[in-house]
Design brief:
With about 450 residues, the protein is α/β, with parallel strands linked by helices. It folds into two domains: about 1-205 and about 395-435, Glycogen Phosphorylase B (Rossmann fold, 3-Layer(aba) Sandwich); about 220-390, 3-Layer(aba) Sandwich (Rossmann fold), CATH 3.40.50. About 40% of the residues lie in helices and about 15% in strands. The chain has 17 helices and 14 strands. The strands form two sheets. An eight-stranded mixed beta sheet has the order 3-4-2-1-5-6-7-8, sandwiched between helices. It has a six-stranded parallel beta sheet with strand order 11-10-9-12-13-14, sandwiched between helices. Helix 1 (about 15-30) links the parallel strand 1 and strand 2. The longest helix has 21 residues, at about 75-95. The two termini are about 25 Å apart. Mean pLDDT is about 90; it is low at about 185-195 and about 410-438.
């Protein structure tokens, strides 16, 4: 089979969505399929430009010209999106080899529309792998929930999913949110990932195969280099974005001062400068680091004793941060602050691999910090986290499950069969339009 995969970012760029897509592409290649990835030539932060064409681990990678303003501002990001949209549309129109399936991720937003249109043009199937659910994340950002623009965007979301062979979500709560956009005459039945009767399936993202706990009898070089030998280190590693919470952690550091752990924030994002500014005003042990390189990731994650995670309740079900996978894979317990109706909170509670704290519950967080300072408690919860990761965040199991569905024949539920005629009619109209353009 021939697959075309679409996402703005792809390795060697370090954007997580591209790394997960590469895992999927490699498995497809290993199973004997032809795989072509179409992405941007520019890096996530806009500072690098990659080769326009290359074969990477057997995957044909085509990188399109686009602007590279990166994350420096909304206008720049919008220009990056727009330029990539335009280049991708031309590339899909000029694609001469008919794919069997076109799979899109969600960077940039609504790239799935181009996947659907191109699938109609080539008379093939289309599928969507939801990393962030739009326009719901825009509402979480502060856009008016009942505004005209949101209603238009909601219709576009329904349109891009309509007729899809598969829609993959990152967890059960996200799958429930996505199902609202797959309501035609009747609501499509939502099934667990091991069932074959619904267009919606959910698979957790997986841990990096190279991540594992650090041996007890081997000193961690990064821990030594950073001067943490005698400290209990609490680490937040990754994107410090608008959907995450940090106030509780900063307030706990302020309250405990030098009697508590060393708090470390590694990475970047829109809220990093805000956290740095807040940390300067208090007398506490707070360090800031840049993103860890892929080569140092295992040592970086293992250099801390406890990991931190957070999510604003307004973002629940619209995104599923992947940092839990890495934390659990190296056997580190996680303290999570945020809403409980999300995958991160549920997986921590189900596994016993950490602690869950409600938003604005400083006293609750302080009590958990005291508990997490106990090495025996950390060990117990870290072991539970690692066990859970090996079973539920398994690359072969989860990525392999997606692969098998992409390979297989589409099986529809009774409720989706009710709309089959309308889907066919819509796709035929799109096909006729594309043929007229060409």
């Amino acid at each position: 089979m021939r697959f075309v995969l679409l996402n703005q970012f792809y390795p060697p760029d370090m954007a997580p969505t591209g790394l997960y897509l590469h895992d999927l592409a490699c498995i497809l290649v290993q199973r004997g399929h032809q795989v072509k990835v179409i992405c941007s030539r520019r890096s996530y932060d806009g500072t690098k430009a990659y080769l326009p064409n290359e074969i990477l681990d057997g995957v044909e990678v085509v990188r399109l010209p686009a602007t590279g303003f990166g994350r420096r501002g909304f206008i720049g990001k919008l220009l990056d999106y727009t330029s990539f949209y335009g280049a991708l549309l031309v590339a899909l129109l000029l694609e001469r080899k008919r794919p069997d399936l076109i799979l899109s991720l969600t960077t940039p937003p609504y790239i799935g529309l181009l996947a659907k249109l191109a699938a109609a043009r080539h008379r093939c199937r289309h599928a969507h792998w939801i990393m962030d659910l739009y326009p719901d994340t825009m509402v979480a950002h502060g856009m008016k929930r009942n505004g005209f623009l949101i209603r238009v965007l909601q219709k576009l979301t329904r349109f891009q999913f309509k007729g899809a062979a598969h829609v993959f979500a990152l967890g059960p709560i996200m799958a429930e949110r996505v199902s609202a956009y797959l309501t035609y005459q009747n609501k499509i039945k939502l099934e667990p990932s091991n069932q074959q009767t619904s267009v919606i399936r959910w698979f957790p993202l997986w841990s990096n195969a190279e991540l594992s706990p650090w041996p007890d009898d081997e000193p961690n070089p990064l821990r030594i280099a950073r001067g943490w030998t005698n400290d209990v280190v609490f680490l937040y590693s990754g994107n410090m974005g608008l959907g995450h919470r940090f106030g509780e952690f900063i307030e706990a550091a302020k309250r405990l001062r030098h009697s508590g752990p060393r708090w470390v924030f590694a990475g970047g994002g829109k809220r990093r400068s805000e956290i740095v500014s807040a940390a300067k005003s208090i007398m506490a042990r707070i360090d800031f680091l840049d993103y860890a390189s892929q080569e140092e990731l295992r040592a970086h994650l293992c250099s801390a004793d406890v990991h931190l995670a957070s999510l604003n309740s307004s973002w629940q079900g619209f995104m599923v941060p992947s940092k839990l996978q890495g934390s659990f894979a190296v056997g580190r317990p996680v303290i999570y602050v945020g809403g409980r109706d999300c995958e991160t909170a549920r997986w921590i509670e189900e596994s016993g691999g950490g602690w869950v704290v409600d938003e604005n519950n400083l006293n609750g967080l302080l009590a958990i910090v005291a508990e997490a300072l106990d090495p025996g408690e950390r060990r117990k919860r870290g072991d539970a986290a690692m066990k859970f990761a090996r079973e539920h965040f398994n690359l072969s199991k989860n990525c392999g499950g997606i692969t098998q569905l992409l390979e297989g024949r589409v099986v529809t539920s009774k409720s989706s069969d009710l709309t089959g005629k309308k889907i066919h009619e819509t796709d035929q109209i799109l096909t006729d339009k594309f043929n007229s353009i060409l």
